[in-house]
Design goal:
The protein contains ten helices and nine strands. Helix 6 crosses helix 7. The longest helix is centred in the C-terminal third of the chain and has 18 residues.
Length: 267
């Protein structure tokens, strides 16, 4: 395939609906009480996109991720993952990154990254080579034999991202991965996240309650509101790539932030 043909094919994949959600609804029941966790979620996500999901605490963001991961079933609506090719297996084709890195303290960083490969019984030699490549990609080359306590919080999250990619998943779900970091480290990790996304080409759903973070990272942004939980907006973010922190000072960036504030009733 020529370089031009490859570019066209990549563009076509990015505009194909890899994830299709229609009228998604989830209700949790405890005794005689019902709690509406997710309501009216309808969206398409193309292969290779990074989509941010923003909203206040308790609005159903994590529940949405659990549905996408196959850990929770929706009560109503349609969930289709895999695009036209299909063949999507939730356990095998999903990588997850949480707010805490959750690295095993008795394993080295390299061994932590390899954990999903060990669980899935993937070839160990090839997995070790891929783990080293991923550690290099996330900027942790030279820390393979370190223990988690020897790394900063931001470095631990980089290792967690590498771990989520070790088994080459089709979809990466990230649940407030930088929420526990200080403001400066979080800014740096936002830049790193975009660099990793561009290099990996993965489809990423990134959950956050940070409005500026949602705009800065997303190629699209879904806004969920609380009380009762519902999806109120879903829009593309037309900002230049690769992005720098300078874009946050632009009028266009500010308009996107203002749009989210309005949807959340924070005018």
């Amino acid at each position: 395939m020529t370089a031009q043909a490859d570019t066209v094919a990549t563009a076509a994949r990015r505009h194909e609906a890899f994830i299709r959600l229609r009228n998604l609804r989830k209700v949790f029941r405890t005794g005689n009480q019902e709690f509406l966790a997710v309501s009216d979620v309808t969206l398409d996500i193309a292969e290779g996109e990074i989509v941010s999901v923003v909203g206040p605490s308790g609005c159903g963001k994590t529940t949405l991720l659990r549905i996408l991961a196959g850990l929770t079933n929706a009560d109503d609506g349609e969930v289709t993952i895999g695009g036209a090719a299909g063949g999507f297996t939730p356990g095998r084709d999903v990588g997850m990154v949480f707010q805490q890195a959750l690295l095993l303290k008795w394993r080295t960083i390299l061994e932590n990254v390899m954990l999903p490969a060990d669980i899935l019984k993937l070839p160990r030699k090839e997995s070790r080579e891929r783990a080293r490549e991923l550690l290099d990609m996330v900027g942790l080359n030279g820390f393979e034999n370190s223990r988690p306590y020897e790394l900063s919080g931001g470095m631990q999250q980089r290792a967690a991202i590498a771990r989520a990619l070790i088994h080459d998943p089709k979809l990466v779900l990230m649940d407030e991965p930088f929420g526990a970091l200080d403001a400066l480290t979080r800014e740096k990790m936002n830049l790193e996240m975009l660099r990793i996304w561009e290099r990996s080409g993965k489809t990423i759903v990134f959950v956050t309650h940070g409005i500026q973070e949602a705009v800065f990272l997303g190629s699209r942004c879904a806004v969920l509101t609380a009380g009762p939980a519902r999806m109120s907006d879903y829009f593309p973010i037309d900002l230049p790539q690769p992005r720098s922190l300078e874009v946050k000072t632009s009028e266009v960036f500010g308009n996107y932030v203002k749009r989210i504030y309005q949807q959340l009733g924070m005018k």
